[in-house]
Recover the amino acids of this structure.
């Protein structure tokens, strides 16, 4: 037998093996902990953890005419910040000082909804769903009307509470 294999192996060697075993265990735990941080990290969509997106100044919205606005905001997750990301689009409808917003995403399959030309209301050109001037479902395969989004005025700008809803469902179910 060699001296290293004898029951009376040196204390220095035993200490080295203990340190090596602890280091390997710590590395294994860290390897499992890093993905857990991604899974458990908060989802912060639009900048500063909120969903309110600043759009146009109220004076830029024509009264009584739907205006399509692309929503752009900073998107932050637990680790990164992506600047000026397109989140989606809305139709803004102004009546005096009141502004309503309707999602431009068709509740049927997620196509882009257009304003009807020459008539009030909206239409999904892909699957022939028609919507009234207030976004209510008139005809077609869409299971519900256009999804309304909350608005408010802040320093003269129209703010939209951005939300996404499940497609193909009669009930309005928020996604994410």
């Amino acid at each position: 037998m060699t001296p290293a294999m004898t029951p009376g192996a040196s204390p220095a060697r035993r200490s080295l093996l203990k340190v090596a075993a602890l280091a390997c265990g710590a590395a294994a735990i860290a390897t499992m902990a890093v993905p857990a941080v991604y899974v458990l990290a908060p989802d912060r969509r639009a900048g500063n953890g909120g969903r309110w997106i600043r759009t146009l100044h109220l004076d830029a919205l024509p009264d009584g005419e739907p205006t399509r606005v692309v929503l752009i905001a900073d998107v932050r997750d637990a680790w990164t910040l992506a600047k000026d990301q397109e989140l989606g689009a809305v139709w803004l409808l102004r009546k005096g000082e009141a502004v309503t917003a309707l999602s431009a995403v068709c509740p049927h399959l997620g196509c882009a909804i257009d304003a009807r030309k020459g008539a009030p209301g909206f239409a999904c050109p892909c699957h022939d769903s028609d919507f009234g001037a207030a976004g209510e479902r008139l005809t077609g395969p869409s299971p519900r009307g256009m999804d309304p989004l909350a608005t408010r005025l802040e320093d003269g700008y129209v703010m939209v509470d951005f939300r996404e809803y499940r497609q193909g469902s009669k009930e309005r179910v928020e996604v994410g």
Observations:
- The first strand starts at residue 44 and ends at 46.
- The two ends are 65 Å apart (CA to CA).
- The first helix runs from residue 11 to 40.
- Confidence is low (pLDDT under 50) at residues 37-50.
